[in-house]
Design brief:
This protein has about 230 residues and is mainly α. It has one domain. The chain contains four helices and two strands; from the N terminus they run H-H-H-H-E-E. The longest helix has about 90 residues.
Length: about 230
């Protein structure tokens, strides 16, 4: 009886050993499959993240390039206007008399400043294309140029009002100088007002694209806390 009991216990121990070995093997197999699946998931996520970051950077670069192109093109327009007024004003001022003389004289004087502003605009446009264009930098630059253009439109209106005042004063005092200078300020202020409004409208379209992209990134709650998510 004892040998049979020992044999049964030995058989039971052998079966348990086989079962344990099989369970260990199954555990290892499952772990290998899970590890392989996890690697595939992480690889796919890395590809997605790389593509998303690349697309985001391309978008930021396109916004900066468009803003610089607008500033460069508009600076050339201002330079052309300034050059034409300086040349024409200098020639006409030497030949004209009365209020017309002062009108052309002021046109030439005024546009020397416009020429300097156009030169600074071209330098600024070139500078904007250097470095890495992040979301934060683009937002800062976009807000800066839009605020500057709004300020300029206010100044343009002030130029027109000053010109109207000088013109009225010249007519009242029958003085050629304030009349001529007033007519020049009205002309130059009206051009700059229209010019700056057009520039603002162009840059606002660029700003809206940037703001729309900004709202796609947001924080949302998760079971473990907060996560930064991108909504397509």
């Amino acid at each position: 009886m004892a040998p049979q009991l020992r044999a049964a216990k030995g058989k039971e121990f052998e079966l348990r050993a086989i079962a344990y070995s099989e369970s260990v093997h199954l555990y290892q197999l499952v772990n290998e499959k899970m590890f392989h699946r996890m690697k595939c998931i992480l690889f796919a996520f890395a590809l997605f993240l790389t593509g998303a970051v690349s697309a985001q950077q391309q978008f930021q670069d396109s916004i900066a390039t468009e803003r610089a192109a607008l500033q460069r093109n508009n600076s050339w327009v201002l330079a052309a206007w300034a050059g034409a007024n300086i040349i024409q004003g200098s020639i006409s001022a030497s030949n004209a008399k009365g209020s017309d003389h002062y009108f052309h004289q002021m046109n030439a004087y005024w546009n020397t400043v416009n020429m300097a502003v156009a030169g600074m605009g071209l330098l600024a446009a070139k500078k904007q294309l250097t470095g890495i264009h992040t979301q934060e930098r683009n937002l800062k630059e976009q807000q800066k140029i839009e605020k500057l253009l709004l300020l300029n439109t206010g100044l343009d209106a002030a130029y027109i009002m000053t010109g109207l005042y000088l013109k009225e004063r010249g007519n009242r005092l029958q003085s050629d100088q304030p009349t001529g200078y007033g007519n020049s300020l009205v002309l130059q202020g009206a051009f700059l007002l229209v010019f700056d409004i057009i520039q603002y409208a162009e840059n606002r379209r660029n700003g809206k694209l940037l703001e729309k992209n900004t709202t796609n990134w947001h924080l949302e709650p998760t079971p473990t806390g907060l996560a930064l998510a991108y909504r397509f």
